[in-house]
Amino acid sequence: MCIGIPGKILDATEGSLRMGRVAFGEVIKQVSLALVPEAQVGEYVLVHAGTAIQVLDEAAAQEVLDLLEELAESMEDRP
Predict the structure, then answer these.
(1) 13 has which bridge partners?
(2) Beta 44-48 vs 27-32: how paired, if at all?
(3) How confident is the model at residue 7 (pLDDT cuts 50, 70, 90)?
(4) What sections of the chain are H helices per DSSP?
(5) What are phi and psi of 54, to 5 degrees?
(6) Inter-residue contact 45 to 12 (CB < 8 Å)
(7) Quick one: fold of 5-76?
(8) Is residue 78 pLDDT above 80, yes or no?
(9) b/e 2-11 (16+ beta carbons within 10 angstroms → b)
(10) pLDDT for 76
């Protein structure tokens, strides 16, 4: 099973491989934006294995983040 995590693009650099700094809450990572050339700073992208694979609207990104938060909270209740 694979999972993608939504993050917000903070900045992007052009070059042989388009890269950007993407925020996942308070964590910021360098991510390849090569597969989403249409993605703009301030937009959300779905990131898997360090590569943005899809542009998301803010509502869809928040829905996924809420579900992940709910999952994490349910895991904390386990012995």
Answers:
(1) 19
(2) unpaired
(3) very high
(4) 58-76
(5) -165, 145
(6) no
(7) SH3 type barrels. (2.30.30)
(8) no
(9) eebbbbbbee
(10) 82
CB-based burial of residue 21 (10 Å sphere; 0-12 exposed, 13-18 middle, 19+ buried)?
A: middle
For the chain, give every domain's residue range: 5-76
- pLDDT of 33 reads 98
pLDDT digits (tens, 9 = 90+) for 27-66: 999 999 999 999 999 999 999 999 999 999 999 999 998 9
Strand positions, DSSP E, 1-79: 5-13, 19-24, 27-32, 44-48, 51-56
- The label of the residue with tokens 């829905």 reads 63
